[in-house]
Amino acid sequence: MAKITKPGSGSSELGTFLFSPVGTEENGMTLTVLSALARLGLDPWQEAARLAELPRCAAVTRLSGIIIALPCRLWSDADAKAIANRLVATLPGKSASSASAQPDAARATRHQAVTVVLLGFVFTWVMFNLANHSRIIPDSNIMTSPTIQTSPVTHGTAMP
């Protein structure tokens, strides 16, 4: 059996994760993350701290592997991944809202960039039209273009 370290300061942040249910065993008892890690000879607090430091995707992959490695093998690979995904969300800094915060920030930055570019185009268009407009303002001194007179063409006659 693995030596389980006593939870120290900061372990309260991991408590929600460690005491979250993995699922129900065949005997009807709830299996917690803490129990699952201990059954595999892992120190629950150290493993929880390791998982909390990993990127969300890597933590889900690691935890689903741990769930699959359990001796009772009650869950399929797909179920283990879904369970791990749910459990990793309870780790500090791994909630669904913090996972979506980065894409939201990137989306806001893209939105700002598009807005600046569009405003630049509008500004350029306005300035171009103002410059052209000042050239075509009617002035009383502007002469009209002369009319070109043409003589009718007659067929069969030579031109003088």
Give the helices and strands, then pairings:
Elements: H1 12-18, E1 21-24, E2 30-32, H2 33-39, H3 44-53, H4 56-68, H5 77-88, H6 96-135
Antiparallel strand pairs: 1-2
Summarize the structure.
By secondary structure, the chain is mainly alpha-helical.
Structure description:
This protein is 56% helix and 4% strand. β1 and β2 form a beta hairpin. It folds into two domains: 12-94; 101-133. The protein has helices at residues 12-18, 33-39, 44-53, 56-68, 77-88, 96-135; strands at 21-24, 30-32. The termini are far apart. The longest helix is centred in the C-terminal third of the chain and has 40 residues, at 96-135. The chain has 160 residues and is mainly α.
Low-confidence stretches: 1-6, 97-101
Shape: elongated
Count of domains: 2
Structural class: mainly alpha
Average pLDDT works out at: 77
Query: Helix coverage percent of residues?
Result: 55-70%
Please give the alpha-carbon distance between the first and last residues. 122 Å
The Cα radius of gyration reads: 38 Å
Spatial strand order of the main sheet: 1-2
- Continuous helix count: 6
- The count of DSSP E runs of length 2 or more, i.e. the number of strands, is 2
Q: Determine the oligomeric state from the structure.
A: single chain
Largest sheet: 2 strands, antiparallel
